[in-house]
Each structure stands twice: as structure tokens, then as C-alpha cells.
Amino acid sequence: LTPRIAELAERIAPVTIDMQFDYDLYQDRSAGVDLGLAYRRPGDPRLIVAKLATFHFLLFASPGYLASNGTPTSIEELRDHSFVEQGGPGYNETAIDLLLGADRDRTMTRVKTNSSLTQAYAAANGAGIAILPSYNRAISSALVPVPIPLNMRVPLYYYYRAEARQSAVLRAAIDWLGEIFDPL
Prior knowledge:
By secondary structure, the protein is of the alpha/beta class. Helix content is 28%, strand content 23%.
């Protein structure tokens, strides 16, 4: 969203866009937002909820990291590499454990952060391999996919209060969201 937020700002001017990020997947934020995005379907029956997209995850690394450490071609070869992980309270940080097993060597993780931006930058600067959404290919040429297929995906939902249904600004924001994501 962030690289394209200027498009939305232009459409709904002079309304201010206030983007707040929280990685706690279990926290309900629906009370304080006009339009929200969540990786879990909100449970409040008063909300209008729709699936917006599905994020597909890939392994990414910098070309420099791969040149120095080799390009793994199997899950087993990943055990010889370093990782950059994202994790924190309420965030599902088991992705690498799902790949390599919970008994993996914890020193494989060279950097751990709760910020997806920090994770991407650390991987782009050679700190290790990261599991990131496939859209990173469109954001940065500093990261390249590692050729090991993953079967990891996460749905993304948008939600809003039913009483806001007639808002022109809300409709413009929802239309913009629909345009920037590939069809489901």
C-alpha cells in the first residue's frame, strides 16, 4: 500500500489518510477506524467484511548474499543459511519452524525484528534469507526470490462499519484497494 498511497491521497483530498500499523494479529482494532485491513476475518457482526487479496510468500535474499553463500535449491539446503525473521507479540513467527522444524538451530536467525520493513531491508543488505510476500518483487530489485517453492499464503480482509456504507470517501478507498491488488 505505502508505495501507492499518493494515488489514494489524490483521490480523496482534502481528507487525511491516517495509516496505523500493528503486528498483533489478535488485537481487534475495528472500533477506531473508518476502513481497516486485517489478516484475520474480524468477528464483529456489525462490520461489513470482504476478502481483498491473498498474500503469497516466497523466500527472498539479496544477490550479494546468494553470491557469497550459494543459492539453496531445497529445504534441506536452507539449513546451511542465515535467516532474517519477523516476529513479536501476537504475530505468528513460526514460518521458518514450519519449513525446517521447531528443533532447528536457533543461531540460523541472524536478525529478528517485529518490523516487515526492517526485515526486508536487512535481507536486501545481505543479512540472510527472509520469508516475505511475493509483492516484494515489485518494490525492490535488491531482493530476488530463492528458487524453493513455498506453499504459504495469508488472506487479507477489509472491513468498515455498515453505517459508513454511503460515504463517498470510503467507497473511493475501497475502489482503490480493489484496483491495486490482483484479482483473487
